Amino acid sequence: MTEIKCFVLLPVLTRNESIFQSESLYQSIDNLNRFREFLHNYQKMIEIVAREKGAKIIYDSENVTEFQQQMSWLDDEFMSLQYAFYTLLSHAENCRDNSKQVADSLYFIWDLKQFAGIQINRSISTLAEIAEEKWQDENKKLVLMHNDSIHLNRSIIPIIKEDYGKGCPFFICIEHVKNSTELENWIRRNRQPRCFNLNPKHGENGKGAKANKGEKVSVLLCNRKHAQELLESAVGDKRISKKLFNFDHEFQKFIVFEDENTPNNTYHGYHLDDENEVPKNIQEYLFKRA
């Protein structure tokens, strides 16, 4: 199974506003509605990762603490919203518990406008953490989620790793996303491909289902090609079960895909007669996406 790691970076004030847009971000969340929208964008991204098979959320406790301190001027209603956001991180991994960074190395983000490297400090060391993990294994599926707190008009963040006395510095390219749509697209491109496996028990095109005596069998109403298309955009919630769901507009029914736990990431599927078999949060998500 392909493992995906999504690193959360909260905005903190830095001395370089050409890349880190923290100042403008803080000015833009000067009222309750804007702050709620700002946190909601992070929440949507975290929820996407929480639902995805093989995906993990990684955060840096120092980055979170720095963000809290810089937002300490907010009143109680603002703070309660922050608390709701931090509860989402309760099942995430703190990268400081198992840091990959090398003590003798320095990490810089490359600023093309200034044509210079900006050293990554502890409050934004999430960047150094993801860079080091990518350096150790370039095939790992890693992405930075930053909610537009980094201003870059390109798909990668260039990080320089400097090991003094050990040769030339290295460039490490980090992929990043700033909203839930970009994250969903990134996950689809990088997760292990899902493969639909036709189970004869459920038939195909609404025919050929094979039931044991007295057993009711749900039927696959579409063909296997259409089922594969639905599988690729299906969603689930790994915190509840391994099942994935989608809504088939052709037949106006939900379809469920069951994980077969194979190395090829295969699923078999069938349409549902009872929509109550689909968790409410999944139904809401699918209809909002439609």
Question: How would the blueprint of this fold be written?
Answer:
Layout: E1 4-8, H1 22-28, H2 32-51, E2 55-59, H3 61-70, H4 76-88, E3 93-94, E4 105-111, E5 116-119, H5 126-136, E6 141-145, E7 156-163, E8 170-177, H6 180-190, E9 195-196, H7 224-232, E10 235-236, E11 244-248, E12 253-259, E13 266-271, H8 280-289
Parallel strand pairs: 1-2, 1-6, 2-3, 6-8, 9-13
Antiparallel strand pairs: 4-5, 4-7, 7-8, 10-11, 11-12, 12-13
Helix pairs in contact: 2-4
Notes on the protein architecture:
The protein has 290 residues and is of the alpha/beta class. It folds into two domains: 187 residues, no CATH class; 95 residues, no CATH class. The protein is 31% helix and 23% strand. It is built from eight helices and 13 strands. Strand 4 and strand 5 form a beta hairpin.
What is this entry, summarized?
This protein is an alpha/beta fold and 290 residues long. It folds into 2 domains: 4-190, no CATH class; 195-289, no CATH class. It has helices spanning 22-28, 32-51, 61-70, 76-88, 126-136, 180-190, 224-232, 280-289; strands at residues 4-8, 55-59, 93-94, 105-111, 116-119, 141-145, 156-163, 170-177, 195-196, 235-236, 244-248, 253-259, 266-271.
Features of this protein?
single chain; 290 residues; alpha/beta; eight-stranded mixed β-sheet; 8 helices
